Amino acid sequence: MLVNLRDITAMAEQRGMAVAAFNVPSLEAARAALDAAERTGLPVIIQHAECHEGIVPLDVMGPVMVALAERSRAPVCVHLDHCEHLDYMRRALEMGFTGAMFDGSALSYERNVELSARAAAMCAPFGCGLECELGSMGSREGDVVDGEDAEGRAEAVYTDPHDAGDFVRRTGLDALACSFGTVHGLYKGEPRLSFGVLEQVRENAPVPLVMHGGSGVSDEDYRRAIRAGIRKINYYTYGAKFAGEAATEAVRVREGERRPVYWHDLTMAAYERLLEDAMGVMRVFAGEGAPADGESQGAVCEED
Ligand code: 13P
User: Fold this and answer.
1) Dihedrals phi, psi of 171, to nearest 5 degrees
2) How far apart are CA 90 and CA 60, in angstroms?
3) What is the pLDDT of residues 120-140, one digit of tens each?
4) Which positions ≥6 away from 275 have C-beta within 8 Å?
5) How many CB atoms are closer than 10 A to CB 96?
6) CB environment 17-50: b (16+ within 10 A), e (fewer)
C-alpha cells in the first residue's frame, strides 16, 4: 500500500527504527526492495534520484514504482531523491509520488530556504511529504571517496545544528537530511561519523532525520545513528556493487560449464543478491522493531 513520507517516518519514530530507502534504477532493484519489505514485514521507501535519469528516465520508472507500491502488502513510500529542479519534482508529484527530496545543498543558505519552502508549497496539495538537506555531503552516488572528502568534488560541510531549527520552521519540511560524515558512493577508508551533530540537530529541530550515503556503514554505526534520531537511511551503492558481483559470477559459472549466457541469467542473479542484501539491512535498521522470523510473511506491519 502506498503511504506518504510523513506517515512512514512517523511509523519509524514510534518504533525507534529507521526505514530503508533504496534507490531503484531497474525493475530488479524495485522488485527486490518490495519483496524484502513483504518478507521482513517492514515498511520500505523506494526512490528515484534525479541523477539516475540517464540510467532510467523518471517517465519510465516512476509509474512502475507507483503501480508496484500500490499493490504491495507492505507500507511503501515512493520517493523522489536529490531533486534539484522544481519542474522535475512536479512531474513526480503528478505521477503519484508520496515523498520528495528537494536538494538545495549546493545553494546559499537563504536560497536553499527559499526553494525548499517553494517545494513544500508544491508538495502540500498532493499530500506528498518533503525532505530537504542542510549542509552538504560533497559527493553523489557512484563516487569513490576516502572517508574525508570526495576527490574532485566540493568538500563536505556538516549540518550546522544552530541553523537547523530556523531551516525547519521556515521551509515547512517533514524530514531533514543531515551531513555528519557519511558520503555517497564507495568508501576507501572507514567512515568517521559525527554523532554529536545529529544529537544537536535533534535538540534544535525535533523532526525525523535522514542519513544519505547509507551503504558501506557498519552495523554499530547504523545503530548509533538511529539512537541519535535517524529515521530514514538511503542505501544504494554497496547493494548495486554486490548485485554486479553476483551477475559477474553467474557469467563465470555458465561460461565454465560451456553454456550460453542469457541476459535473464544476469538479472535473476542480481535480483536474488539485491533481495538478500535488502532483507539484511532492513533488519539491522529495524533493530527491536523487526517482526520475529515466521511472523513476517503476510502480516505486514500493522500499526501498534
Ligand atoms: P549510497 O549510494 O552511498 O548508499 O547513498 C545512497 C544515497 O544517499 C541516495 O540518496
Assistant:
1) -95, -30
2) 15
3) 999 999 999 999 999 988 765
4) 32, 35, 36, 39
5) 17
6) bbbbbbbbbbebbbbbbbbbbbbbbbbbbbbbbb
For 275, the 3-state DSSP assignment is: helix
DSSP-assigned letter for residue 229 = T
CB of 139 shorter than 6 A to ligand 1: no
Read off the pLDDT of residues 45-82 as tens digits, 9 standing for 90 and up. Answer: 999 999 999 999 999 999 999 999 999 999 999 999 99
28: amino acid identity, one letter: E
138-34-253 Cα angle (round to 5): 85
Residue pair 134/108 in contact by the 8 Å Cβ criterion: no
Q: How far is the CA of 141 from the centre of ligand 1 (A)?
A: 5
**3-class DSSP state for residue 134?**
strand
Mean pLDDT of the chain: 92
Q: Does residue 235 have its Cβ closer than 6 Å to ligand 1?
A: yes
Rg of the Cα atoms in the chain: 19
Cα–Cα distances (Å) from 291 to 136, 272, 285, in that order, read: 35, 22, 12
175 exposure class (CB count in 10 Å sphere: 0-12, 13-18, 19+)? buried
Longest dimension (CA), the chain: 64
239 neighbors 260 (Cβ within 8 angstroms): no
- Ligand 1 test: best mutation among 144, 237, 238, 285, most atoms within 8 Å of CB? 237
**3-class secondary structure per residue, 36-77:** HHHHHCCCEEEEEEHHHCCCCCHHHHHHHHHHHHHCCCCCEE
Neighbour count for residue 242 (Cβ, 10 Å)? 16
**Which contiguous run of DSSP H or E holds residue 235?**
strand 230-235
Query: How far apart are the C-alpha atoms of 213 and 68, rounded to whole Å?
Result: 25
